[in-house]
Write a structure and sequence with these properties.
The structure holds two protein chains of two kinds.
Chain A: H1 2-11, H2 14-51, H3 58-72, H4 76-86, H5 102-132, H6 137-144, H7 149-179, H8 191-200, H9 202-206, H10 213-247
Chain B: H1 8-16, H2 18-51, H3 55-69, H4 73-86, H5 93-118, H6 122-130, H7 135-165, H8 177-186, H9 194-233
Helix pairs in contact in B: 2-3, 2-5, 2-8, 3-5, 4-5, 5-7, 6-7, 7-9, 8-9
Classes of the chains: A mainly alpha, B mainly alpha.
Amino acid sequence: MDEWSASFHILSMGPIWAYIIKGTVFTLVISVTAIALSLVFSSVLALVRNYATAPQYKPLYLAAVWYIEIFRNTPLLLWIFIATVFCPVPDAFGHPLFGLTSVETKMLFKAAVALTLFETACIAEIIRGGLNAVPKGQFETAYTQGFGVVGTMYHIILPQAFRHVVPTLLSQIITTVKDSSFLANVATIELMSRVRKIMSTAGMYNGTGTINVSDVFVLYGTAAAIYFVIDFSLSLLVRHIQKKRGTI
Amino acid sequence: MFGNMFSARAWELVWSFRGTFLLGFWHTLLTSILAIAMSLALGLIFGLMSSGTKTSLKAVARVYVEFIQNTPLLLQICFLYYALSFSGHGIGILASGIISIGLYHGAYMSEVFRAGIQSIPKGQFESAEAQGFGYVGMMRYIILPQTVKVVLPPMTNQIVNLIKNTSVLYIIGGTDLISNTYSFVTGVNTGGAYGPAYLVCGALFFVMCYPLSRAATIWETSLKKRDQMSAAKE
């Protein structure tokens, strides 16, 4: 019983909470940034894969297909490892920032790049699903109204495609928040890695000098609760939207 | 620049340590197969529970799915592994991996099965009951065989995700493909051959996953075509 109260004692420390909450903020910022950037890249990829089928666009089309297939069929962790070795870091991320050391900000940039590259392929396939649901007549009507190819895509087709896939895209944010925990393998920035770090030195904080099984429950339980609150509220939102649409 | 991608020595190094990669490949394959079996079994059980009529069973399945789907697999595997180790009941890295990956994807599989069972018209259940089938017989002979076509594409996609997710073993010190690759490129005697090693690792994952995701796409397309044809007939 003493072990349990010692474990809960860790959670009563202000600096520990500040550390965990900062990690949560990083988790959210990394995920939202990766999703926002991926949306832009993946729209281009999806449009190219779906519509650049004319022979003169063959290289572009093949590039889009191979990008999507390669990233969809290899694990995120591999791309994180690859980015840590190969990804160049701009000077803006080369020095201490947001309370992180310069090594960590570099890692943050690289990991965010890896996550963006990976999610781009996933989201491209989701958007393609939306594009396929847009009736063909929409293209023909847009062209007869004098829209060019880019105008048609940007003003007519993409907005409709996005409308179709809003629930799936929101679910992908849930996945991205979870996927961002893979960064714990290379750096101590986001929630998962920070809890792991507290865990590895729990003996120092709980006052017993050793790491006990109760620490595992309390610390990882806290992390699970935080992830659950974020992801479950998103999934409730998804269900709300789907329900609303079902009645229309 | 390219992590010794074009260095003959680096490729020779990868070749002479091919055993490391093959062992990792085998461990990833083994973990995947056992975890797939576990996730399918769990998925079927909880899928049946959540598409049934008993409210209490439905609630249990709901809690399982929501809890698992809304927390990261990495957290779950750390929790399982360390909780067992620190309480003196350690079951080893590979077994911890198989159980946590199986549990995680079991939740996704159960949603796949639930969607499949719910896609079957109500009349099928009623006529099966009218013909005197019990619950097990009805599911076994009437309902589940009809769900196969609907369930197959998302199930295969989940299997691909599962294979990719075996990379979580790295955090508890596994010897799967990605962990072995990483220890190879950072090892004292073998370090530096980043380019060739990551290429080999990626290629091995691609070889496992691409045929499956390709098959899923083909099944999905043929399913959609058939739906359109039957819609046109009506």
